[in-house]
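Board notes, transcribed. Complex of a protein with S-adenosyl-L-homocysteine.
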Amino acid sequence: MNEALAKHTKTNLLDLTPAAAHAQLARFFERSDEPAYRANQVLRRLWQAPVATFGDISELPKRLRESLADEFALPRLEIAARQKSTDGTEKFLFRLRDNEAIETVAIPEGDRITLCISSQAGCALQCAFCATGAMGFTRNLTAGEIAGQVREMRLLDPPIPVTNIVFMGMGEPLMNWNAVDPTLTILNDPNGLGIGARHITVSTVGILPGIVALGERPEQFRLAISIHAPNDSLRQELMPINTKYPLAEVIDAAKVFDRRVTFEYVMLGGVNDAEEHAIQLAKLARDCRAFVNLIPLHPGGARGFTPTSPKRIRAFARELRAHGVEVAVRKSRGVDIAAACGQLRVERLGRRPPRRPKHDGDIQVA
Ligand code: SAH
């Protein structure tokens, strides 16, 4: 980019932590001879009570709204599709500036609304049963694009009041730590979205450096690990990443993580749902005092796999409990709108052959 152009690149306030955005705004208002409280006025309008454009900050004089818009960017995520399931689950397909598409799912349950957010466009990991893996990896999302998914819920009319966040949409959050790290701050900070750390869950296949980095954050963010197979040979078949981060090392990382972890286990009929698997899984879970979530397979997008019957899932849960493990069976949500990871985008845009990342640098680990 040439210098003249670079000078005119607007700073995207949504890619910054609230503290960094405040610092930028404070400098801007100081240069403009405006009182310091202006920075707080704008900060509140980024995440807490968000506006669609600077022009909507009605508490600011019009000329200030215009000069803000000249200096800073406040990009939206465009809703390309929105579907509502009969069970209340709502699925959004967002289109990004470069035409990439990502998915976000809002799942109401009692007095909570959990938002399942994406951290990458596509995914490089190619887990055998996952629709996102089948589309390959395109790029990392920025912090503004990840937290922006929650912001967009607040901008809807009526808004969707999200109470919980899970990083269980498209992508592997711990292979995009440079963006996920500030995103966690934006989600949790009272000057950001103000969602309690214990209500925010990062889900990973077991990217070890990322687990360490997450554990080093002082907030009580939750960690979920996609285990899906209780021994190396089966896990290898289902999850190619197991070559790089084998099961035993993932379990060791879970043991030293200073908060209790959850194991995610997708039930694949005739593949990982026998009693011997329950016994092996129970040992792993006991070793690191993990809580186990059994997830019924969403059949769409999972080529060649069939769901375990509900009866067998219940029996599997009993087998785990009999071996001293706490377990929950997840309800399948949004099956009628193909709400599992990657499914809506696959339905809309068709499958592409899996792609390798364009540059190794696209994928960063903590
Ligand atoms: N890469 C991270 C974050 C994505 S989470 C991770 O794998 O944990 C996606 C979650 O949805 C994972 O637990 C994954 O196993 C689950 N999932 C993917 N495809 C699924 C399907 N067809 N049915 C049910 N769950 C699925």
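The longest strand covers residues 101-109. The first helix runs from residue 3 to 7.
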